[in-house]
C-alpha cells in the first residue's frame, strides 16, 4: 500500500523509446506506483493482502527491483529510507514486545475487510481495530 499512488514527476532529458513508446525530450512522466505494485506479471494475486509473500521473495524495496518501489528509485528516491525503515522496525518491535494483540469480539483475520479508499493518499476504506492488552512479566 504505497502512501501516494503516483510518484514525483520526472522529465526525460532526451528522446527515448521505452517498451515501444516514443518519449520526447522534456516530456514530464508520472510513475504510477500503485499499478506497478499490483502488476499480475510480477505478483500472484496482486490485489490480495498476503504479506507472507515477502518472506521468500528476493525483491529489494529500496528501488533496485521495480516490482515494489515504496520509496521511489534512482537519484530522486526518498532520502529518509534508512531512518524510516529503522524507525518502523523499532516501533513495531516495541509494540509486539509490550502488548498481546487480538481482534475485537472474536473476529478472525480471514474476515477482515482490506479494501482501499482513494483520495490524495491511499488508505484503508474501513479502520483496522485491534485490542492491545499489556503483557505483564511475572
From TrEMBL:
The keyword Nucleotide-binding does not apply. Keywords: Heme, Iron, Metal-binding, Monooxygenase, Oxidoreductase. Heme binds at residue 78. Belongs to the cytochrome P450 family. This is Costunolide synthase. GO terms for molecular function: heme binding; iron ion binding; monooxygenase activity; oxidoreductase activity, acting on paired donors, with incorporation or reduction of molecular oxygen. InterPro entries: Cyt_P450 (IPR001128), Cyt_P450_CS (IPR017972), Cyt_P450_E_grp-I (IPR002401), Cyt_P450_sf (IPR036396). It comes from the Eukaryota. The lineage of its organism: Eukaryota, Viridiplantae, Streptophyta, Embryophyta, Tracheophyta. Signal peptide: none annotated. Its cofactor is heme.
Amino acid at each position: 500500500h504505497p502512501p501516494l499512488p503516483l510518484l514525483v514527476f520526472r522529465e526525460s532529458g532526451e528522446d527515448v523509446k521505452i517498451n515501444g513508446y516514443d518519449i520526447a525530450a522534456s516530456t514530464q512522466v508520472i510513475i504510477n506506483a500503485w499499478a506497478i505494485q499490483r502488476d499480475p506479471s510480477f505478483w500472484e494475486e496482486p490485489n490480495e493482502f498476503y504479506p507472507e509473500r515477502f518472506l521468500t521473495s528476493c525483491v529489494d524495496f529500496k528501488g533496485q527491483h521495480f516490482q515494489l518501489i515504496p520509496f521511489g528509485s534512482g537519484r530522486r528516491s526518498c532520502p529518509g529510507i534508512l531512518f524510516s525503515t529503522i524507525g518502523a522496525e523499532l516501533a513495531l518491535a516495541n509494540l509486539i514486545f509490550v502488548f498481546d494483540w487480538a481482534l475485537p469480539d472474536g473476529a478472525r483475520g480471514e474476515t477482515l475487510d482490506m479494501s482501499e479508499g482513494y483520495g490524495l493518499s491511499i488508505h484503508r476504506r474501513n479502520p483496522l481495530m485491534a485490542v492491545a492488552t499489556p503483557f505483564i512479566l511475572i
